Amino acid sequence: MRRTRARAVTAAELAGRTDPAMLRRRSRRGLVGMACATVAAIGMTAAAARAQDPGLRRDELAIESASGTHRFIVELPRTPDQMARGLMHRRQLAADAGMLFLYPADRVITMWMKNTLIPLDMLFIAGDGRIVNIVERTVPLSLQVIESAGPARGVLEVNGGTARRLGIEPGDRVRYPAFAPDG
Question: If you count Cβ atoms within 10 Å of the first and of the last residue's Cβ in the chain, which end, N or C, has fewer?
Fold first, then answer.
């Protein structure tokens, strides 16, 4: 083990640390650093704002399960571009938030996790509002195809682990106007 000795600071070195010109240079460097940090913070805030697409309509839906009624605020992509983008590039999702993809008729629905940064639970929902199947904790950035176990009218994407945490299971009912109890 190597030992080092503390050396004495000379009066000349000490005087140099309080030199007004040096203090101004350090102050400028500090201001530049603060300005860079501010610009970076604004950029991250802008990116987060873009991630929550203001063009998406938001609405509330409920899931009725044996463990109770669970309410979510969902974003509704309507255009093909919005549906293709989905929750891509999002770094977080509120615990009571989700995205609801709706299709005009029941069919086998396929999804993937390309450019999706957070694990999701995907709840595949039939036209009558019954949950057909749930794929839990999907793998971020995966290109693996994820599909409904049968014909479905929609897919609700929520944070990974939400279905298990709330006791939501296949057969539970999603209450939302797009899903009519009679199919």
Answer: N
